[in-house]
Write a structure and sequence with these properties.
By secondary structure, the chain is an alpha/beta fold. It has 21 helices and 32 strands. Helix 9 runs parallel beside helix 11. About 10% of the residues have low confidence.
């Protein structure tokens, strides 16, 4: 065997999670890795369904190569398929370039330390020496690792530019392929496929062909190709990572550190106390990458990053019953972070729409801290995702309860809700099982989860509307009884206001109906677009998620009816989710196109705000809509729109555009102030 260069050091992998947990005295699931520069979770596309077809043919070779992935990468990178070379991750392609261009006695130029050590490893494995004079090949890391900088491109050619973090910087050397530049990228970082070991190289056609000739046959697996293809169909949006990177850097600066500006998914913190800081973080389960002159910290999500900041700030571990738990099945992958002794800090994102909302409400009202991230086969429906999320949450609760010392074995509660009286009894003795009894509400809403119920509602005769006279008539009669000599105002004359409440499978419809009926309006729970078009006032209520709600509106044809009302200038009222649906788009559920009744978009609450935001809050502005009064809010998203006319605690609370009025609060739950607001809506109609 040929001897390696003197002083050769192989690439050093970080310790395994199990080994780190053993050193820290923690459960492996409590280890949070800030050292890998990979996303905290796989993309939603990375699930069993993505590889099912490839798995069915796993017994055979990829005859003819991988034309589809070459085409998909070429479209993504803006090149031709002939410019693409596949490899088992960026590392495999770095090694390929080194052995293709350099040999014993040659010189290879690598970036100055600190830099990615595989450049040196690849050159030395090829038998080359490290230097700058007379280099036959030059490596450049851009953005740099571990500094996150964007160094200038060297003038030397041939030049290999490692763009592993290209998506976060949006700067590329691809336009220089014809000038002797080779670009290497990976699916390990932004695409979250580090375990699949797949990457690609972009080069001038002749160079690419020569490099492919120096590869092993079928250098990547068909399963990895299937995952990469699935990811390329919906490339990740890294805007949230970049935003969180800047928030993390600001948090580090507030603690006295000086992180370097970064163009990647990590920050580098110069420090001479690397080992002490790393040991202190590991004791609480946080693992960072120690390098010469500092530590590199991968950007994860707000909750994990806040944990790291808390440890660096010297905050003591709170004596809470908390746990991290993961559950993976053939259909889903769910990760749960749970604190039983929490404060209702909640985020549930599985893509299961209404079910996410229900889990959030359960945790919020139970004062639990709950973070759930998951993905599943939503194309077959939400049932697998909802079921496995519930199981994962139950398993997490079971682990967090521990030996159950000092805990009552059972408890019960009776809770009055908007449309029901709920009774529950819970036994923590470990017996599995549940009994649920649901009595059908005579005025129940159609469920957008299935076309059958919606169609059955659609076929009901229009005479099914409910009413007890108009707001004018009922108030006038009451006034006459109290003050018979008082003259009735002109506004009290005329027929009852007909209110069509759009029914599309999104919560609180019955409570909205009762609120209007108390004011004397004639109401109809409407799945028929004609009823919505003909009513004096159309109401778009909503509790749930944007994705399932828009699906329900489209299913019933109510989306077109509402747009037609807006064009005709007829009054529309949007409540809570209804306001968000009326905007151009919502970032919920991965991005959902809205009705476009008002400009703007719905964004998740940020800047450290508690999510969901639930409780009473004062309305600021919009005197015609109750400015100065207090209303009930319950939401996780808020509108960013130029049509805002009132706010509450700095968030959009009222939107007015044309004939549309939308409110983020719930007037039907806001007592007398809510009643006055709805009465004004009826008077305008």
């Amino acid at each position: 065997m040929r001897e390696l260069a003197a002083g050769f050091r192989p690439y050093e992998w970080a310790e395994s999670t199990d080994a780190l947990a053993l050193r820290a005295g923690l459960d492996p699931v409590e280890i949070v890795r800030f050292d890998g520069n990979v996303p905290p979770l796989p993309l939603p596309s990375s699930r069993p369904g993505a590889i099912a077809s490839a798995l069915a043919d796993v017994n055979t070779y990829p005859h003819g190569g991988y034309p589809h992935i070459h085409e998909a990468i070429a479209a993504y990178a803006g090149v031709e398929p002939e410019n693409v070379v596949l490899g088992a991750g960026g590392d495999d392609l770095i090694l390929l370039c080194a052995r293709s261009f350099a040999g014993p006695g040659d010189v290879v130029s690598v970036p100055p330390d600190p830099t990615y050590p595989l450049f040196r490893v690849a050159a030395q494995l090829a038998g080359a020496m490290i230097g700058d004079d007379g280099a036959v090949l030059t490596f450049c890391c851009r953005p740099g690792n571990p500094l996150g900088d964007l160094p200038p491109l060297p003038a030397a050619r041939p030049l290999v530019v490692d763009e592993a973090y290209f998506e976060y910087a949006a700067e590329t050397a691809v336009p220089l392929l014809a000038d002797g530049v080779i670009v290497i990228r990976t699916f390990s970082k932004a695409f979250g496929l580090a375990g699949a070991r797949i990457g690609y190289l972009l080069a001038e056609r002749g160079t690419a062909a020569e490099l492919r000739a120096r590869q092993a046959p079928a250098p990547v697996s068909t399963l990895s190709v299937a995952l990469a293809l699935a990811a390329l169909r919906t490339p990740p949006d890294v805007a949230a990572v970049v935003e969180e990177r800047e928030r993390l850097a600001a948090g580090l600066r507030a603690l006295g550190f000086e992180p370097l500006p970064s163009h990647a998914n990590f920050v580098f913190v110069p420090t001479s106390d690397t080992q002490e800081i790393a040991a202190r973080l590991l004791a609480r389960g946080c693992v960072v990458r120690v390098t010469r002159g500092g530590i590199r910290i991968t950007v994860r999500d707000r909750e994990d990053d806040d944990l790291l900041l808390a440890v660096l700030a010297g905050e003591d571990r709170a004596p809470t019953r908390s746990v991290r738990h993961a559950r993976a099945t053939a259909e889903t992958a769910v990760r749960v972070r749970l604190g039983l002794d929490g404060a209702g800090r909640v985020r549930v994102e599985t893509g299961a729409g209404l079910y996410d909302h229900l889990f959030e409400q359960l945790a919020f009202h139970g004062s639990l801290d709950l973070i759930v991230d998951g993905s599943g086969d939503l194309e077959t429906g939400a049932h697998h995702t909802a079921e496995d999320t519930a199981i994962a949450l139950g398993e997490a609760i079971d682990r967090a309860l521990g030996d159950r010392r000092g805990i009552a074995r059972y408890g019960s509660a009776v809770v009055p809700m908007d449309d029901a009286l709920a009774r529950a009894a819970v036994d923590l003795g470990g017996r599995r099982g549940a009994q649920i009894d649901l009595a059908e509400d005579p005025a129940r809403e159609p469920r957008a989860l299935g076309a059958h119920d919606a169609a059955r509602q659609r076929d009901r005769p229009r005479s099914a509307s409910r009413g007890r006279g108009g707001v004018q008539g009922r108030r006038a009669c009451s006034a006459r009884r109290r003050a018979p000599r008082r003259q009735r105002a002109a506004v009290d004359e005329g027929h009852a206001v007909n209110v069509a409440i759009c029914a599309y499978g999104a919560g609180n419809i019955r409570s909205v109906q009762l609120a209007f009926e108390r004011l004397g309006a004639s109401t109809a729970i409407a799945v028929d677009p004609d009823i919505v078009l003909e009513a004096d006032l159309a109401v778009l209520p909503g509790v749930g998620s944007a994705g399932s709600a828009m699906a329900g509106l489209r299913l019933c044809g109510l989306d077109a009816a509402l747009r037609a009302r807006a064009v005709a200038g007829r009054p529309i009222l949007g409540i809570c989710l209804g306001l968000q649906l009326a905007l151009d788009e919502s970032e919920e559920d991965g991005g959902v196109a809205g009705l476009g009744l008002a400009p703007g978009r719905a964004v998740r609450l940020r800047d450290g705000r508690r999510v969901p935001r639930i409780g009473w809050a004062r309305l600021e502005g919009a005197p015609l809509h109750g400015g100065g009064e207090t209303f009930w809010f319950a939401h996780s998203y808020a509108a960013e729109t130029p049509a805002a006319t009132a706010t509450s605690e700095g968030l959009t609370a009222v939107v007015e555009h044309g004939s549309f009025v939308g409110v983020q609060f719930h007037p039907e739950k806001s007592g007398a102030a809510g009643g006055r607001f709805l009465e004004r809506c009826l008077s305008r109609a």
